[in-house]
Specification:
single chain, 12 strands, about 375 residues, alpha/beta, 6-stranded parallel β-sheet, globular, Rossmann fold, 2 domains, about 15% strand
């Protein structure tokens, strides 16, 4: 089968989406498919000289220049797979050709509709998310990373249908296929002297690990509050907190100062996969009290490295972690800290359960799920479209 994968715009630096495209390309080629990966190229954004202009000139690259190239590429392929729901408008460009889209989450769409008071969306963001939802609503085939995302998307489509008076409007076919690890995380990696020195970690020093960006749903303020309570317990009195991902914003630094944790919280900015593997493998536990997620890759990454997982008792975290985590309520920091102290007494059982849970996300089985959906789509589509 000749498959066109529509990837994201590289200047947006969405690392997880770029990894997803690379993994799927490898998996499909290994199964004998002819695969082309294409995404919008930077042209107007290269001419911009400040962040504001780069952002809006990027829209020209994505929505003015790319569609004509995508239309040409689609003609020479059997199937088009748009890899990110935020590019749902491209489905209109390739209509008449068998196509599907992956929906990773609908958090930005829900935020733009006012569902999350803590997440404010500007007027241009609201217009963009409305456009994205409109494209998803008209998609014929949708892959979702989790049952939670599938449920939320169906609810949004139903609500939009009510708003427009079109009841019963929904995706023609929606299928849940979990993600697989997009890098070969393994247990046993040691912290390099360079990494330990850079972070100020002493040999054998105990620490909790958080992995994530500064999006509101990552609940980094909650991470700091829970850690402050853990730090007051005898068993964790000398433990530290490593926050891996993006640099901490000013508000979070102020919260760390208020909790008097300046010497206990470590930033690990833009770590490599190898460094992250070592951080997972030597941590007391991954602390991931997210308020929302689309899937939750850090859960699987931690489990693959033998790192116990602490996460929210909310979907999709419960869906992904299975029985291999200490589950907490992110809205109740004190109760969460108590549950963590009790739960981590069974660290070895958590490690073993984590390795077992990973079997549900076997890369070969995930790739098989994708190929099965492709084949079903091709069987449903008329020969003229193919």
């Amino acid at each position: 089968m000749r498959i066109l994968l529509v990837a994201n715009y590289e200047p947006d630096s969405q690392e997880s989406m770029l990894r997803y495209a690379a993994w799927l390309e490898r998996a499909l080629k290994a199964r004998g498919h002819q695969v082309t990966v294409a995404g919008p190229r930077a042209f107007f954004s290269r001419l911009a000289w400040n962040p504001w202009l780069k952002k809006y000139s990027g829209y020209l690259d994505k929505f003015l220049l790319f569609p004509s190239r995508l239309r040409r590429l689609a003609r020479s392929h059997d199937l088009v797979h748009v890899l990110d729901h935020s590019n749902s408008m491209y489905l209109r460009t390739v209509r008449g050709k068998p196509s599907l889209i992956t929906c990773h989450d609908v958090l930005a769409i829900r935020a733009a509709r006012g569902e999350f008071p803590q997440a404010r969306t500007g007027w241009s963001g609201r217009l963009l998310q409305r456009w994205i939802l409109s494209g998803l609503r008209r998609a014929r085939y949708v892959l979702c990373d989790s049952g939670k995302t599938a449920h939320d998307l169906q609810a949004l489509v139903k609500d939009l249908g009510k708003d427009s008076g079109e009841t019963g409007k929904s995706c023609a076919e929606l299928r849940v296929v979990y993600l697989a690890l997009n890098w070969s995380y393994r247990p046993g990696a040691a912290l390099s002297e360079d990494l330990a020195s850079r972070l100020g970690l002493r040999p054998g020093e105990r620490y909790f690990l958080h992995v994530g960006g500064n999006q509101w749903y990552k609940n980094r303020a909650g991470v700091v509050r829970i850690f402050a309570l853990l730090a007051g317990m005898d068993e964790f009195s000398v433990a530290r907190l490593v926050m891996a991902g993006k640099a901490l914003p000013g508000g979070l630094r102020a919260a760390i100062h208020r909790e008097r944790l300046e010497d206990r919280v470590i930033e690990a900015v833009d770590t490599t996969n190898e460094e992250l593997q070592a951080l997972y493998g030597n941590a007391l536990a991954l602390l991931l009290p997210s308020l929302e997620e689309g899937f939750g890759w850090p859960i699987l990454e931690a489990q693959a490295c033998g790192c116990p997982v602490i996460t929210s008792r909310r979907p999709p975290m419960t869906e992904v972690a299975g029985e291999a985590a200490v589950f907490i309520d992110p809205a109740e920091p004190q109760a969460a800290a108590t549950a963590i102290a009790v739960g981590l007494k069974g660290r070895e059982q958590l490690r073993a359960a984590g390795f077992k849970n990973l079997e549900r996300f076997d890369a070969e089985a995930v790739a098989d799920g994708y190929c099965a959906f492709y084949e079903a789509i091709m069987e449903h589509e008329p020969a003229s479209a193919r």
